Amino acid sequence: MKKTRFILPNAFTSLNFLLGVFSICWSAGMFTGSSTTNPFMMGAYFVLLCALFDKLDGFAARLVNASSEFGAQFDSLADLIAFGVAPAICVALCYKANVPQWFDQNFILVLIAFSIYVLCAAMRLAKYNAMDSDSYHHHFSGLPSTFAGMINMLLLALVLQYKWFENQNDALLFLPIAVLLVTGLMMVSPIFLPKLQMRKNKFVNGFQIFLIVVTYISAFFFVTDKIPYLREFLMTEAVLYVIIGFASGLIHRSEIIAEAKASADK
Question: What is the pTM of this model?
Fold first, then answer.
């Protein structure tokens, strides 16, 4: 019984890991014949599913009291694949497939953004395991890799939906690469972002729960075109959370650091 309780959280982590691998496979065209959906849209969809299951493994571990060092390391490895490697590969291959001439002309820029994003994701996850997981209980230090992956995949889905590659507007084509670079740097930034946790205010808790439920439902229907503005809603929600959260982190930065120091001294 002592060992079996670890099965549930590790099962969610395993699913997260495999979905990240599937995202890469679909983007690379390995399973193109198995679905009529655009392979890059499917790659983005798998990353969003990873984000949903990523939260469930931690919840399951706390529910059955199955937190472990193995689970923490396995989770970080799965996150690196799902939110670090998979989004970067999906974005790069999508450009290569849809605008090969633009890709060749801007190869160095794409390579730099790709490399920085993947490296920052790896450094952020290593830093979190080494220091931040015990230092800040109510805030993230930097943008979580989960949100970085989600934002990049949601943007790529909108690019495909609105046919930016077909229009080949240079200003718009540079945007996903710029976002990939910026979100990579944001992962290792020293800015704080509030975690989604239970608060003292019941209204805030109710609003958070409502948004989480709506987000989960919306993300599962991400690949369908029958629900209007679904991807726009998810993108708006993610961007607003990051903007408002980072603004709050900047305003209360000194208080957050003081709280972490006080907690460490106890």
Answer: 0.91
